[in-house]
Every structure is written in structure tokens, then in C-alpha cells.
Design brief:
Elements (H helix, E strand, L loop, with lengths): L6 H13 L2 H8 L3 H15 L4 E3 L4 E3 L1 H25 L5 E7 L1 H18 L3 E7 L2 H9 L5 E5 L7 E6 L1 E5 L12 E6 L4 H12 L4 E7 L2 H9 L4 E5 L8 E3 L11 E7 L6 H14 L26
Parallel strand pairs: 3-4, 3-5, 8-9, 8-10
Antiparallel strand pairs: 1-2, 5-12, 6-12, 7-10, 7-11
């Protein structure tokens, strides 16, 4: 008799594939990196094969790993569909969600996939903009929810603290030898820029604001060209670039607090369930057991946007 697949093992396996690393997958499934490694090892032992080809820089699927991935996704989809068909309310409608592009690509993709499985009749419109631009849109009820960096204008329900890291084309990029140090920065007024400049000033490092952009891709382009170093959230670092730090003479940067903020008109089931799903899936606390989020957790007064 063949051993049965453990859904948790399959979920962890998919998380490793989608994030490209055991470290990033650990945040997705709310487990330690060691626990993720043990789960993958357990899955490989059960199947009697290697699922990942590992080297110092990349993590890629073996042929059996590619085969398992297709079936694992189908098994999890059926698992979610079976659960939602029995226990979820019939929720339908539309939600307008705002988030910076780097948060959408690095954090929200699995949340949106899961939510759409649970609530297939809900239409989601995504507005990609920086947190500084989303604050007035939220206050004017132009968007329902915002997955953003917390500041004095955006005080929603806390989701996670995301580390900021220095990024360069390589660990020995020639840019590091320049004085003043050429730095690419997010747009004026954003918390990420404030934290970056505070770290440089606190370490008394001579720098110049060589580039400024509201887009992660704009900043990454300056790094690819070998023109600057940048500071971004760790979850959004492209795999081709190098994470820098104290070994390269760069200071630690204070992390960003990510929240789900809500507009005044968001007091309806579609918004309740999407807000709860983001908090549940992206919180770095203990993993929750029920696939169905508790919407009451995201309807507290503290989760609405504070007016400036």
C-alpha cells in the first residue's frame, strides 16, 4: 500500500517552487527554514527520489519534481474547492485592492490564488501604486483595501514586519568603492526612503541620491546597469542580484511594517474576506489550521485608514 500524500507537505513543496528558496518559502507557510527543509526531505524520502537540484546559487526542479508539481497543484486545488464548497458562504461582488508592485509580485500572488479558489464569484481589481499614492485613494474611497507600508497616514491591521536589505549587482560591485556612494532611492515621502537615509546618516556614510523612482523596476534597472546600490524589502530582491550588508560597509536598515488598511466603504463581506485572507496567509505568526479566514478579525476600527 502506498503512503498517503500529506497536504501540508505538498503545500510546502509548492511554496519552495514558487518562491525559489527555502528561506522565502518558510515565510509563506509560516514555518522555520529548518522545518521546511525537513518537510521536503520527508517528501523525497517517501517518494524515493530527489525533487530539487541544489547548488550554491539556484534551486531547480528535477524531472520527478516537475511531475509532482503538476499533481500537487491539482491536489491542493481540489482540497480548497472541497472545503469551500461545503463551508464558505456564497460571497460575490467586487473589491478594489491597492498595493505597491513589489508587494503584489512577491507576496500577494499566492494569496490571490487561494482567495479566488475559495470565492470564485468575487472580482478583484488591483491598483498598483506606491503606498504614498494609495493613502489619498483610500481616504477618497477610490479603493477598498490597501496592502501597504504603515506610516502616519496609513494605519491598518498589522500583517508582518518586512526586513530591508541593500542590493547590488554583485557583492564586489565597483559602485561600493565610489565616494560619495551612489544610491538609488524610492520617491520622496515614502517610509522606505526615510529608513534608508536614516541608516546612511546614522552610519555617517557619504552618499549621493543618484536616482529616484516610485517603481521597484526603475531602481533595479540602475543596479543592473552598475550605477548604484539600492535598499528594498528582502521579499522583493530579484534572484540575479546580490544582497549586501555590513561586510560591504553598509549599515543595517530598520524594517518596514506592512498593514492592510481599509476605506470607509469597505464594510462588506467581499472586503472582509479578502482582508482576512491577507492577514492569515501573510502573517509571520503560527500557522492557522482552518482554510477559511475569520472576517471579524479585519473589521476592527484599527484596520481603517487614518485620515491625515
Amino acid at each position: 500500500m502506498h503512503p498517503e500524500f500529506d497536504v501540508d507537505l505538498l503545500r510546502t513543496f509548492i511554496a519552495v517552487v514558487e518562491t525559489g528558496s527555502f528561506t522565502k518559502a518558510s515565510a509563506t507557510v509560516h514555518r522555520s527554514q529548518a522545518a521546511v527543509s525537513m518537510q521536503i526531505k520527508r517528501l523525497e524520502t517517501m517518494l524515493g527520489t530527489t525533487l530539487f537540484a541544489r547548488n550554491t546559487r539556484n534551486l531547480s526542479l528535477t524531472r520527478p519534481g516537475n511531475t509532482l508539481l503538476e499533481y500537487a497543484r491539482r491536489v491542493l486545488a481540489l482540497h480548497e474547492e472541497a472545503w469551500s464548497a461545503i463551508v464558505r458562504p456564497e460571497v460575490s461582488g467586487r473589491v478594489v485592492l491597492g498595493a505597491p508592485d513589489d508587494y503584489v509580485s512577491s507576496l500577494l500572488s499566492p494569496v490571490l490564488r487561494r482567495f479566488s479558489t475559495l470565492y470564485p464569484h468575487v472580482e478583484i481589481e488591483i491598483v498598483c501604486a506606491q503606498s504614498t499614492s494609495l493613502a489619498p485613494m483610500l481616504a477618497d474611497n477610490k479603493i477598498d483595501l490597501a496592502f501597504v507600508t504603515r506610516d502616519r497616514k496609513l494605519r491598518g491591521e498589522f500583517v508582518r514586519s518586512e526586513p530591508m536589505v541593500w542590493v547590488g549587482a554583485s557583492v564586489d560591485t565597483p559602485v561600493l568603492a565610489a565616494s560619495p556612494l551612489p544610491v538609488g532611492l524610492y520617491e520622496p515621502g515614502c517610509v522606505a526612503r526615510q529608513h534608508t537615509l536614516a541608516a546612511l546618516d546614522g552610519a555617517r556614510i557619504r552618499y549621493r541620491a543618484a536616482f529616484s523612482s516610485a517603481s521597484l523596476m526603475g531602481l533595479v534597472a540602475t543596479v543592473d546597469a552598475g550605477l548604484s546600490v539600492i535598499a528594498v524589502t528582502r521579499c522583493s530582491v530579484p534572484s540575479r542580484l546580490a544582497i549586501l550588508g555590513e561586510a560591504q560597509g553598509l549599515p543595517k536598515i530598520a524594517p518596514l511594517e506592512i498593514v492592510v488598511a481599509r476605506s470607509a466603504k469597505s464594510d462588506r463581506p467581499t472586503c472582509d474576506y479578502l482582508a482576512a485572507q491577507m492577514v492569515q496567509d501573510l502573517s509571520l505568526g503560527p500557522q492557522m489550521q482552518s482554510p477559511t479566514p475569520n472576517p471579524s478579525q479585519s473589521r476592527s476600527k484599527g484596520s481603517t485608514a487614518a485620515q491625515a
